Amino acid sequence: RFVQRLHALDITTGNNRPGSPVVIQASVTGTGDGSGGGVVPFNARTHNQRAGLMLLNGVVYIAWASHCDQGPYHGWILGYNASNLQQSFVYNTTPDGGWGGIWQSGQALSADPAGNIYTLNGNGDFDANSGGRNFGTSIQKISPAGAVLDWFTPYNWQFLNNTDGDLFWGAVHIPNTNLVLGGGKQGLVYVLDR
Length: 194
Prior knowledge:
Blueprint lengths: L4 E2 L15 E2 L3 E3 L9 E3 L5 E2 L5 E3 L2 E8 L9 E6 L5 E6 L17 E2 L5 E4 L18 E4 L5 E5 L4 H6 L9 E2 L5 E5 L5 E5 L1
Antiparallel strand pairs: 1-2, 3-4, 5-7, 6-7, 7-8, 8-9, 10-11, 11-12, 12-13, 14-15, 15-16
């Protein structure tokens, strides 16, 4: 049985704070990989936290990709209240598909002054351009409520998927501008107006 937990530690003693740890669990509606009965569950065995943690407005955000590319997996973002570890945010990058892991080369998610979250998603299903909910190989802007506000997907996303050329580093905000940078294995840097 595989379990992932979030711990909050007392930095003076190293002991768990009250209410800690919590078992990491989540699910979203969808028909994607690993789903059953119209629900996609977070799978503790196949998901690996690759990105760093982000603390934003009292919420600790954690992002996942796969463990050794073993499926089923998705890109997940979960948020937990930093004071009591109650889950307050759940997002899946490919709820009706698969993959779309959030690798980010160890970098945490990033946010703009309005609290919108930016992520770069790896190889995965993409159908947002035709009204779908899958954002593999995409840069996303997600509201604090979990709504996709905007996104960018390279024109050659299918080629990038086929050649394992996915987006993999985290979004970098350029100070005093509305610009955000992102890139991937193809060696291109995308400069976007957020």
